[in-house]
Amino acid sequence: MRARGATRRGGLKLALLLAAAGVGLGAAGCGGDDDGPASQPRPAAPVEITASVKDRAVDVSPSEVGAGIVNFTISNQSADAVRFVISGPTDNATAEIAPGMTANLKTSLEQGSYEVTAGDDGRPRPAALEVGPERPSSQNELLLP
Question: Domains in the chain, start-ordered, CATH in brackets?
Answer without folding.
Answer: 47-134 (2.60.40.420)
